[in-house]
Amino acid sequence: MTEIDLTKLQTELQQRFGFATFRPGQAALLQALLAGRDALGILPTGSGKSLLYQFMSPHLDGPILVVSPLIALMADQASRIRRQNLGKVAVINSQLAPDERQQLLRQLGDYRFIFMAPETLQQPVVQAQLRQLGLGLLVIDEAHCISSWGPDFRPSYLRLGQLRQQLRPRLTLALTATANTRVRQDILTNLRLSPETFVYQASVDRPNIYLRLQNVPDDQTKWQQTQQLVAEQVPTLIYVATRREAEEVALRLNQAQPGTAAFYHAGLATIERNQIQQLFLKDQLRVVVATSAFGMGIDKSNLRLVIHYQLPANFESYLQEIGRAGRDGLQALAVIFVQPNDQQRLSQRLQTNQLTPGLVQRFFDQPQDPVGLNPGQQTVLQAYQQAGMPAEQVIAILQKTAQLRWRQWENFWAYLTSQSCLRQQLCAYFDPDPPQIQHDELCCSEAPAPRLSALLQQLKLAQVVPAKTAPSDQIRDPFVILTRLF
Amino acid sequence: MQATILLVTFADQPRRYKAIFYLLQGKQTISNLFAGQEYDLLNQFHLYPNLKWSDYQASLRELAQAGLVTLDSKQALVTLTAAGQTAREQLLARDFWPRAYDYWRMGAALTQWTRLLLAVQVVSNLDHQIKHYQPLTESINVQGHVKRWLRRWGRQGSQGLARELGQAFNALPPRTALIIANSFWSDYDPGVSAGSLAQALGLTAAELPLAQIDCLGQLLTFVHGHAAAYPVLAQLLPVPASPLNASAGWTYQQVLSGKSWTKLTHDSRLKASTLKEHLLQAAILCPDFALTAPAIQQLLTLDPDGYFSQRIQELTALGQFQTTAQSSQQGGVTHD
Ligand SMILES: [Zn+2]
């Protein structure tokens, strides 16, 4: 195969998407795909993964199927394709009514981009339809979910390898933001990709994001410092652990300054979710308070500040979540609050979610009567069982993953309590060949030094890109609204 | 779900909490409809179509722990405590419970609400030449409905929508207009987030959607009460011709036409028990049920102690037929 001309690709990028240059990894992955090779792209959040399959669209014979684990993510990606008018999009998920779903499936041939959850893909009718269409490209998004060594293992991803062989797409592209060596191997093996598969792995380092550890003694201090951060008046995303906390934090911020913040979580209807995206994109809402799964759907290139009000589930989530900041390449800040009792709280969470051999054996003996299992654990075991694995094997896998989770957690805690360069640690943990980081005053710090106020003064986030409009998330007179809308 | 909202559906007398769950979820069986009639919750049928039994149970436990209800799990009964009754009064005073919405006359609330909001988004974007955007709902049914509506009305429809909404806002109570208008948004004007609207109204995030349904009910009643003056909105938000589904509607039509029970069972391919169920649905849901129709009278005389007669007696005891005791056969549903 001949090397695809890079200048030709760049011209196409300019013409179709209006970008002058590719982000790291994009060109290499596109060259591989255009040369007919399957590919695995390990690219940090915000590096333009979706551009890859959008770019490929006119170069393919058949439609593009994107398998994605989260409904919110699918909806957001579909929305971007629609806004840019790149082709017809179908999103098939559990929110559709049965008749709507059937209608979509019947007309699948009309669509250029098809988004689907892995669970939907397991259905024989769906598979038959897709086989008939002849897929041009199969995209496995969040591919690390296929590895039980990864922190986000999703049992529904287990069968994707077999399904891939049945569907016979002309090309396959697996994408993920985080994958250590083990997870990377799992992705290649479990998706049954050939040894010729092209792999691109970028460094996780994002030099424009200042990393800050903020140790706080109690909730009150944390709240005061959050207000101090929000007072910077820049586009801000705050991550919390639960829906209730998302609502509470947003409410308290609005009490201090009405119309500043909105909460964003799985309990919101699609209508409201889409609206908050609009408000945030148009700078009419300054702060979004999100639970971690939903924060993944927030796409705003000028986010200056990401705050972890509570600890994320693990190191990988942390990396993905801070990656939302500064996607425009300009200075941004990621602050994570750490409280003394966090260590105990998180290890307790790990402990309660752990599946003991006894529980697993009992499930395999009496799957109809799942005693002592939470719904998440039931789903995991059901998926293993449906994949035809015997109990002993599942117990062995789960014990290994449990150990791994503990090690992952220990690593993360070491990061959260460390005194050395945070950026260097991040690279050391995630990159196969970690670069040598030159720590400087725009790199990272741990509270108390420098003081938060001094740091904010130094970074001058508000001056990076001045806000275009003041927030206006406040109720108005009905007739004013009508004149404004129409 | 916000557990306290359930308080509105309970009373100081014991109620069957499973029946209330199925009512809120919208499971249409005779016994659920009876419970709805008895508890005065028939209008709120299908209020929470996605309600999960596990969430509902968790909410019940939460209320019991807070001392607001007592539970009799053996007989599956829930009763408000004195504190629960006070809490219920306070909730109702915040004026969000959707009294104005009636599922049987207006159809599924979420569908109607989404139609209205999507039409506003589409027309506003159209007015501002925004061509490529994400429709606010993924529902193909609602998208298709709004598309057909717009095609039928063309340019006139988009102007008509703004005009009719303005007129309706003038006629409706100010708070109703405020809530509906502040729920609108488009890609030109992103409006106000649900959280801010709820906060401004002194409601929680879970109460706001119910307040919106209440306002939608008021809008629908107004628009269809003046359908000739509001043709654009009336067609955008059509209401079902009858609370009965197609097959129950057919059965009831036969009865209205004066057919005897003997002839009806002979003509129909359905089992007698199914036909009786259809007629009980009509007895509960149709405001002027034709109690005196020959087929009904024949059924009552044929088996005065049977299931059908007993249910009719219960309904009579509940006062269902009071205003319609003299009702002639002209009442009931119209299919036009
Ligand atoms: Zn550093």
TrEMBL record, chain A:
Gene3D superfamilies in UniProt: P-loop containing nucleotide triphosphate hydrolases
Identification of the protein by name: RecQ family ATP-dependent DNA helicase
PROSITE patterns according to UniProt: DEAH_ATP_HELICASE, HELICASE_ATP_BIND_1, HELICASE_CTER
Helicase C-terminal domain location: 225-371
A GO MF term: DNA helicase activity
Annotated Helicase ATP-binding domain residues: 30-197
Domain of life: Bacteria
Pfam families tied to this protein: DEAD, Helicase_C
Alphabetically ordered keywords of this record: ATP-binding, DNA-binding, Helicase, Hydrolase, Nucleotide-binding
Enzyme Commission designation: 3.6.4.12
Keyword Hydrolase: yes
TrEMBL record, chain B:
The organism's place on the tree of life at top rank: Bacteria
Protein name, UniProt field: Helicase Helix-turn-helix domain-containing protein
Origin species: Lapidilactobacillus achengensis
